[in-house]
Amino acid sequence: xxxxxxxxxxxxxxxCKAQTGLYIPQLAAFDNAMLNLISTYNVPGAQLAITYHGRxxxxxxxxxxxxxxxxxxxxxxxFRVASISKTITAVACMRLFENGLLQLDAKVFGKNGILNxxxxxxxxxxxxxxxxxxxxxxxxxGWNRDISGDIMFNSYNIATTLGLPSLPSTSDVIRYxxxxxxxxxxxxxxxxxxxxxxxxxxxxxxxxxGQTYESYIRNxxxxxxxxxxxxxxxxxxxxxxPNEVNYYDYPGAPLANxxxxxxxxxxWPYGGFNIEFMDSHGGWVTSGEDLLKxxxxxxxxxxxxxxxxxxxxxxxxxxxxxxSGYACGIQVNTYNNWWHTGALPGTTTEFVRDGNGQxxxxxxxxxxxxxxxxxxxxxxxxxxxxxxxxxxxxxxxDLFNNSTPTxxxxxxxxxxxxxxxxxxxxxxxxxxxxxxxKMLDVTxxxxxxxxxxxxxxxxxxxxxxxxxxxxxxKGLLLQQNKIVKYQ
Length: 487
Prior knowledge:
The chain has helices at 2-15, 28-40, 85-98, 133-137, 145-148, 155-162, 170-180, 195-209, 213-222, 268-272, 279-282, 288-295, 310-316, 374-385, and strands spanning 45-52, 55-66, 71-72, 79-80, 231-232, 256-257, 265-266, 284-286, 331-332, 338-344, 347-354, 359-365, 407-409, 412-415, 420-421, 428-440, 446-457, 464-471, 477-485. It contains 14 helices and 19 strands. A 7-stranded antiparallel β-sheet has the order 3-2-1-12-11-10-9, sandwiched between helices. Helices cover 27% and strands 22% of the residues. It is an alpha+beta fold. The longest helix is centred in the middle third of the chain and has 15 residues, at 195-209. The chain folds into 2 domains: 23-403, 3-Layer(aba) Sandwich (Beta-lactamase), CATH 3.40.710; 407-485, Immunoglobulin-like, CATH 2.60.40. Helix 2 packs antiparallel against helix 14 and helix 3 packs across helix 13 (310-316).
């Protein structure tokens, strides 16, 4: 009986409103939209973060970071963001441009190019020497993956061709492309989205700064902005970063040939592609909060300081002559909106800057469906909710500053929200501060009553659903939460 009920409890855990992060009643429509999204597309876990006038007003996790352990997604959880990495690279290039260290129309290859190292001098297609930095930023460099494939997903063959004993480096892939690949069109003549072009930009940053790509971004962009958890990701689960979610391919997805030997069958998110050399075009792992700290630093609003001048931001976001919907590493439109999407097996992401609403937001998922239409659903989610949100609904707090507002509803007294984690749990749950706790079972029987505690041990409790009621020293209700104990 206990084990048959367990499956029901786990199912309830997926469907109940067990979001993490601060609950804001007047923004509950965003909760509902996210719950509908993860239910409709069978997404294990997700995050949504929103800034309004430069303040982080909403930051919540949904579902599970790990479906085996039922660990929840928290606002601090980090996700692979895939091609959103291109915007990070573009902003870094613009910072070098603004400082006079990089010219956008500078040639990249050849004896007079930025990457004029000896390893890059064996060039098959002499048109390579006409490629400029601006062309790389705007995807007009000359590569069409629909014709010649995406070289950034061809690690094993590159290593074999170059006679390398292990996976190729980013320099190896550039050397391979120059020596063995013809361009698909004349540089600057058309737009074709290119991961490889942004790989090259990462090496340009390294050449100019004398630092690794990751070090330059961290030291010159992230640390000054107070961004601490954003890092480059790894191929394999064994190297998972602290607070990083697990990634899940769609049900029934085929296995991939491992990038390490081209024959071992592996899940696509873990060894099916080489994320470790996708750094500057698809390798970053971050949280919604960190991502929005970054977006707020070039959004051209006057609410938070930008790290680029207005003129440089205008250059960053000026549409390409070959594609009016894409600028330099960022998607744009005539409504003054800027954004970028990202997708890999196990990952769907987007950030948006709403130019007419002083809003920025990010949505991060740890899955991608088979058809890819989930990207459209992600893109529409916040836009669909916004008409129901009045200007007075936006909170005055700023979660960037770790300030928790007071809220008053019929169920809560004016107080801080106390975080409860992990939920669901197998053993213990923890409270973000000491509090008085009553725990009830589903029949409303009190099975625990403790004062001034921050840990509750459920090891001896049967699997199931329980309720905790938190009160202050005067007996006033702080909050009540549903928790799930699994076997």
